[in-house]
Write a structure and sequence with these properties.
globular
């Protein structure tokens, strides 16, 4: 008797499905906030292990305050008007602090890519924007430290609040918001330039005209007509005027709304570009 042997062809095992890289659209708000919190803690611990990274936030306000009040103050405001100039320049320097701290973010991001830190973050199932937002949160904290040191120096030199504590707090909050928007520009520069030195060089080309072509150090009425026109549209002038009027008294609506408008516009344009560049950077 012949036995019929049935042979069953075994189908090949299906290939394992590769999980798609983490996309912000698939990560809930709660998870995203949790990732940002963890990255903020990581960046804060990094500062704790390297306290020298806080030197710029602690020493820069002291140096700038002493330099402009005692070296340039007499020439700009006239001899004997140092007290008046302190109340003029300290609110302006609040705008300058944000700009200088923001520049350090770009060089830091560029350096992190060189060390491979960002590549490890991009391999994790987290939203790409959370890495950059956490960086900004920590730098805003450093900016707050720098602003506190600046105000402490100002009070030692005779700074007076002619409005209220609320006005001072509003000026600080406005400076933080505008400084955070500037960080997106420098993050984009850090992701675009090949070296940290290139980031610093391009940043200085942007910083110098914005800082000195503004109302931070001197009233625009003392400047030539063509420079006054530039100063009127300079966002740093709007921020300096807003902080100055919030502390010393004066009309604030126009300068505050212009500062908030600039901050929203800069963030809306540069933040998506920075996140997209972060995803694609090799």
């Amino acid at each position: 008797m012949s036995t019929a042997t049935a042979t069953t062809a075994q189908a090949p095992a299906p290939a394992p499905v590769k999980s798609a890289p983490a996309d912000e659209g698939r990560i809930g708000l709660r998870a995203n906030l949790r990732h940002i919190g963890a990255l903020v803690r990581r960046n804060a611990l990094q500062i704790k292990q390297d306290p020298e990274s806080m030197f710029d936030a602690l020493l820069m306000p002291v140096i700038f305050t002493l330099l402009f009040v005692y070296v340039f103050g007499g020439a700009i405001s006239g001899k004997g008007n140092q007290q008046e100039y302190v109340n003029y320049v300290i609110p302006g320097l609040m705008a300058m602090m944000g700009l200088n701290i923001a520049m350090a973010v770009g060089t830091g991001v560029n350096d992190d890519f060189k060390k491979g830190v960002m590549d490890r973050f991009r391999s994790m199932p987290i939203a790409r924007s959370s890495v950059l937002i956490a960086k900004i949160v920590v730098e805003v904290g450093r900016m707050m430290v720098a602003t506190t040191v600046l105000l402490a120096m100002g009070f030692l030199l005779g700074l007076q609040i002619h409005t209220s504590v609320l006005g001072l707090a509003t000026a600080i909050a406005l400076s933080m918001a505008f400084g955070a928007s500037l960080m997106w520009i420098f993050i984009l520069l850090g992701l675009t330039m090949k070296t940290a030195q290139a980031v610093q060089g391009v940043a200085m080309l942007v910083l110098m005209p914005l800082q000195f072509g503004s109302s931070i150090f001197a009233p625009p009425t003392t400047m030539p007509g063509w420079l006054q026109s530039f100063t009127d549209y300079n966002p740093l002038s709007n921020l300096a005027d807003a902080a100055r009027n919030l502390i010393n008294g004066g009309p604030v609506a126009h300068s505050v709304w212009m500062t908030l408008g600039w901050a929203a516009l800069i963030t809306a344009v540069t933040a998506p570009l920075a996140v997209a560049k972060f995803r694609k950077k090799t």
